[in-house]
Each structure stands twice: as C-alpha cells, then as structure tokens.
Amino acid sequence: MTELPRIARLPSVCPHDCPSACSLEVEVIDGRTIGRVRGNKRQSYTDGVICAKVARYAERIHHPDRLLHPLRRTGPKGSGAFERISWDEALDEIGRRFLAIEAEHGAEAVWPYYYAGTMGLVMRDGINRLRHAKRYSGQFSTICTTTAWTGFIAGTGRLAGPDPREMAKSDCVVIWGTNPVHTQVNVMHHAVKARKERGAKIVAIDIYRNATLDQADLPLVLKPGTDGALACAVMHVLFRDGHADRDYLARFADAPEELEAHLATRTPEWATAITGLSVGEIEEFATLVGTRKKSFFRLGYGFARQRNGAVNIHAASCIPTVTGAWQHEGGGAFHSNSGIYKWRKGLIEGLDKVDRNVRQLDQSQIGRVLTGDAQALRQGGPVKALFIQNTNPVTVAPEQELVKRGFARDDLFTVVHEQFMTETAQMADIVLPATQFMEHDDLYQGGGHQHIMWGGKLVNPPGECRSNHEVICALAQRLGAEHRGFGMTPRELVDWTLRETGRGTLEELVANDFIDVQPDFETAHYLKGFGWRDGRFRFKPDWTKVPNSNEGLVGPHEALPSLPDHWDVIEQADEEHPFRLATSPARNFLNSSFTETPTSQKKEGAPTLMLHPLDAAALGVAAGDHVTVGNRRGTVELDAVLFDGLVRGVVIAESIWPNGAHRGGRGINTITGADSPAPYGGAAFHDNKVWIRKAV
Ligand SMILES: Nc1nc2c(c(=O)[nH]1)N[C@H]1C(S)=C(S)[C@@H](COP(=O)(O)OP(=O)(O)OC[C@H]3O[C@@H](n4cnc5c(=O)[nH]c(N)nc54)[C@H](O)[C@@H]3O)O[C@H]1N2
Ligand SMILES: Nc1nc2c(c(=O)[nH]1)N[C@H]1C(S)=C(S)[C@@H](COP(=O)(O)OP(=O)(O)OC[C@H]3O[C@@H](n4cnc5c(=O)[nH]c(N)nc54)[C@H](O)[C@@H]3O)O[C@H]1N2
Ligand code: SF4
Ligand SMILES: [Mo]
C-alpha cells in the first residue's frame, strides 16, 4: 500500500459532471480518511464556493455501501444475487466471454458504454482506447450536450465565449435555461457579486419558479420550448427602440437586415400567446438588455433539452449580437468553454486506431439498441456484450421500459464497473468495484470556466477497488488489444497529453494545481471575428454545417427555420395528454449520483410532481396524493406537491431518483423519449406530453 502523507488540506478537483468543475481543498485525516471538503479560494472561478453535496463528500467516499470486491451474478438477472470472486477470476471471465462473442458475432457485438460519472480525461475517456484497439461498436454521445452545443455553435462558430468571471463585471446577468442554485453554484456566486458591487440586475428564465428565479430581480416563467419566441420578441423590441448596434451588426453579422425584416411580425404580443409571458415582462427584459450594454447571457443546457432546443439556444445567443454586447467586458453570451482546450487525446483515446467503418450507436437509444431496433443498430447485428463505466443507464436513459427489457436479456453479457450497486450494476453479470476521484490521479478541465486542473490521489481506496485505467489495461491484456497507452500510468498519459497540447508538463501542473488558459479578451469576445471563415455571427446558420457532429442529420432537420423563430416541433399537449412535463435537476442529487447518500436522500424526501394548485383542483388531487403520470411510453407514480410558480398545464418532477424509489418501481425516464432532436440528435428530457391521474 502506498504511504500517504498525514497532511491537513490537500488540493483536488470535483470530478462530477458539472460545468463548475470546482477546485477543491480536502481535509485528509489519514491515508484513507477525509474530513470536510471546501472550495479552493486560490482558484478565481471557484473562489472558495462549492455545493453542499460535495462539501459533505465524506458521506459518499466512506459510504458503507461502496462496492469493495468483484462480484459474479448467481441468480436470475436483476435478482441481486451475486457471489464474491477474485479480480483474476473476473477479468479472465470477461476476457473469455468478450473474445467468444467477438469470434461468433464480430467485434461490433461488444459495446463499451460510458459517460461522465468522472470528468477526468484519463479515467473517463480511456475506455475509447480499448474500443478503438478492438474495433468494438462506437458510442455517439448524445445524452447531454448535443442540442445545446449545436445551437450555440450555429451562431458563434465556436464553443467558447467571454471569461465567465466577467459575470461579476456585468450590469445585467441573464441566467437562461439553467438552474445554477442547483446545478452550478458558482454562476450564482459571480452574478450576485455583480449585483452587490455594481447594482447589476439578474434576470432568470425558466419554466418554473425555481431556487434561481427566487433570487432574480426579473424572474421570467415561460412555457417549455418557447424560448425562441421570447428571443425573437426581445430582438423585435431592440430594433424597434433603437437598441440594435447597427455599426457592430454591419461588421460582425451575416444577415442583420433580413433578421430585422423577419422580426417585424415577432412582436411581444405575438410572443405572449406562445410563451405565456406578459407583454410587460418581455418589454422590461428587452429594455434592460438594450440599455445595459454589459449584459452577460449565461445560457444553460436545460432549455436545449426540448425538441426545438438547438433553435432556441441559437436564438438566445443572437440577442447580444443585436445589441453588440459582445464588445464589452461583462457582455456577450457564454455556454461552455469546452472549445478552448483543444486536447491532443491520441494516447488517452487510442485515436490512431480509429476505424471510420465501425458503427456508432446512439447512447440515448440504448433501450432501442438492446431490444434489437434495426435502425438503432444501424442495420447491423445485435449487441451481445456491454462494458459500462461512469454511467447508470438503467436509471438515467430515456425509454426505460426498453432499457430494462434490454438489460434483462439472457443472451446479453453485461459488465459494470461501479462505485455503488446502482440499478445498472444490479443488471450485470459481473460487477467490478471502482475507485473514487480522491483515490486516483487525473487531469480535469472546466466546462463553465477556463482552468486545466490536476486531481492527484489523496487516499488509498477501500477494499479491492481499482481505477478505470487499471481495469481497461488489464482487460486489454486479456483481449489482445494493443496500444502504447495501455502500458502507461495515468501520470505518464497526463504528462504526454499536456506536452502534446502545448500546456506545459505534469510537473508544472502538479506544482500549481491548476492553470488558467483563458484566451485573450479580443479572441474570447470574438472581436477578431466569430468562428466562421468570414468572421461573421450567423443569424441564418447553415444547420447542415455546424461542426459538432460527424453523425449526420437526424430529426425533422429539413424543416429547421432559417432565422431565429418559434419552431413548433415540441411534444405539444393534446386532448389525451393535457400536460407538459420537465424533469429538472434536484438540488441534492447529480443525475443519479448522490441518490445513495443519506443527507441527500433526507433533503429530497421522495419523488414528487409539482402541480399548479388550479390544475390539481381540476384533477381532484390534493397535496401529498399519489398521482400516476403517463404517456404512450409508460407510467410513473409520484407524490403531488402543489406549487403556483408554474404556468398552468406544466408539471415538474425534480430528478433523477432511482426507479426503485417510485411506487411501482418505474422511474421518471419511463416516460421520456429517445427520438433524436434535429439536427444532430440529443435527448429531450424536458419535453414530454403526459396525462395525470390521481393514483388509486
Ligand atoms: N444538483 C444537480 N446539479 C447538476 C446536475 C443534477 O442533476 N443535479 N446535473 C449535472 C449535469 S450532467 C448537467 S449537464 C448540468 C445541467 O445543468 P443546467 O444547464 O442547469 O441544465 P438542466 O439541469 O437540464 O436544466 C436547467 C433548467 O432548465 C429548465 N428548463 C427546462 N426546459 C426549459 C425550457 O424550455 N426553457 C427554459 N427557459 N428553461 C427550461 C429546467 O426547469 C431547469 O430548471 O448540471 C449538472 N449539475
Ligand atoms: N429525466 C432525466 N434524465 C436525465 C437527465 C435529466 O435532466 N432528466 N439528464 C441527463 C444528463 S444531462 C446526463 S449527463 C445523464 C447522466 O447520467 P449518468 O452519466 O449515468 O450520471 P450519474 O447518474 O451521475 O452516474 C454516473 C455513475 O458513474 C459512477 N462513477 C463515478 N466515477 C466513476 C469512476 O471513476 N469509475 C467508474 N467506473 N464509475 C464511476 C458513479 O458511481 C455513478 O453511478 O443523465 C441524463 N438523464
Ligand atoms: S458545484 Fe459542481 S463542480 Fe462544484 S463541487 Fe458541486 S458538483 Fe462539484
Ligand atoms: Mo449532463
């Protein structure tokens, strides 16, 4: 066992799938025990602030239910009957079964499946090295960012923007389609600083009066999937009232005259009927961002989880172009900085081994894939083996009825490498115990900021837990997969990656804990031009040429509006399904992570459905009643909570509870869809038409 120092406060990085990617300071009590976790004050985006669930991380890392040993299934799938086996037995069996499946059905019958349970580059993405070396089926990762990134890049040409710390220097922070009080506390921290120090206004736009809207000066609650209409009406007012920066538009935009003409009919009255907002609210918002040039649009993922999400986030990003806000410190639009890092991940991901002929299966369609949907399988053979790291699809993926049916297949060999016995691990043939972030070394980047960060091993893992990298390398050996990366340590991979990318060395990074790689002001504010060849922002994007996917066009992409608009392709309520459901994030969970920690469970209580009191009355539902929520995909049971911070006809189930936490054992993703939103796919988790009945 490695000797670890007995030091009080050591640096680390939060590895969870969160744009804040906080720089941490961990109290290390001894070689295997931690105390309190705090935000690092030296890193200027984190600025000492982290969320409560990570502050109490001792609960998760020292949880009595951590998986400690490899397990083999002994009863029927999903029965929970497992026996303890050794690592060698586990790895040998996986090797044997994968090779046999490959021999009989071809390499594409094996599907390595992963996501961002850890955001560390080595531990998250190393699975792709095994995939590529073996020509296993590819994964088209659609579950989170696809619609949002597509929509943002459609205008700017690049996934980057002004330094997010500039929020604190803004005169108006517009928090749009994200609930940072729950999902990324640091946004709130910098926005509130701007209000305190310079009297900035905070606008927050969501579909219910959530914890962020409660703190806003101008909270706007609109109907789901109508943000494009709001953006158009705001721009109509900006042109009408002389707040458009015509000089800037002439220099930096593609089609300002066409946009202005198009917007002539997109009046606040027009938008009122679509969004449910009042004319006064729209006018007030437009005047605010028209008169305060330093307006910072912090655009989230949430409003892009609609079938028209790409169009809506693009429409929102057009506003600072009309006002010219991009030119000012504290102005412009920011969604993600993922475009600034330009990592050379050749060794981590084994990119030299990529075979473009191997099929790419859509992550969000795992239910369809496993139940033999020919289109989802790209007309190829069935998936016979799954190797899963860093994700919990049996809770988080849409179309759960298909997902569960697929995982229950007796002819499917499933390996799950996990920290806990998740609902996915429960369906496995072999379960492998994984380290947590403080138990291994890795490299991190901020999506919502601009730091490269080092998270070194601080404590020894419990039991026989192994890191993702160790498991991938051990499997590679048994599977005859060859690549230089399998013979390297995480530190060596990080050092090579940093050097190749031109970001110094491991030694330098470890010495500093993090490096600030924010591009210069003119680049970040697109003053040298937007990310297109002509340097002009696209009001009229060519949706077939957004550089965010090589997977081709999907969904009703032929019908995409050419200019910002309300695009009516959402699941509109109808007679059979009078309500629209969104599955917004719960504060004390992070997707399905932290659903295992007692404090988070206690704070969240039970799976609930927020319902407008008048809607509840019409349904004969009282607070605390069980309700059944359904659509053609299935049904789920929740406890009714009456809340008037909703537009009538809209309901919210803060998520993601395990399926098993619901009466009947069906979770919220039973009723979400896996159809692909245009133009490049994604998952429309907040766009569901449903019916509601009082449960019997
Ligand atoms: N506590 C907590 N933190 C998290 C997560 C979590 O589950 N819980 N998840 C993590 C992950 S993986 C991600 S990707 C990020 C995502 O974080 P965000 O960018 O905040 O995105 P979402 O969590 O999907 O949703 C944010 C908000 O969008 C709202 N919304 C839904 N539809 C619409 C719409 O049509 N218009 C508007 N204006 N708003 C809409 C929802 O009600 C919700 O309040 O958060 C991360 N952080
Ligand atoms: N209804 C609804 N569904 C949603 C969403 C929604 O808003 N509504 N949001 C969607 C979004 S944005 C996302 S990103 C997905 C996320 O869904 P997931 O990617 O499944 O995220 P988590 O539920 O956090 O599960 C991550 C798992 O990885 C494990 N893990 C963490 N670190 C490691 C490690 O180092 N090694 C190994 N082997 N395992 C590790 C954790 O224990 C945890 O069980 O969910 C999507 N699903
Ligand atoms: S806010 Fe996000 S990145 Fe920061 S500690 Fe919490 S989960 Fe981690
Ligand atoms: Mo996500």
UniProtKB/TrEMBL annotation:
SMART domains: Molybdop_Fe4S4 (SM00926)
Record keywords, A-Z: Iron, Iron-sulfur, Metal-binding
One function term, GO molecular function aspect: iron-sulfur cluster binding
InterPro entries: Asp_de-COase-like_dom_sf (IPR009010), MoPterin_dinucl-bd_dom (IPR006657), Mopterin_OxRdtase (IPR006656), Mopterin_OxRdtase_4Fe-4S_dom (IPR006963), Prok_Mopterin_Oxidored (IPR050612), YoaE_C (IPR037920)
Domain called 4Fe-4S Mo/W bis-MGD-type: residue spans: 7-65
PANTHER family, sorted: OXIDOREDUCTASE YYAE-RELATED, TRIMETHYLAMINE-N-OXIDE REDUCTASE
Family: Belongs to the prokaryotic molybdopterin-containing oxidoreductase family.
Protein name as catalogued: Anaerobic selenocysteine-containing dehydrogenase
Source organism: Bosea lupini
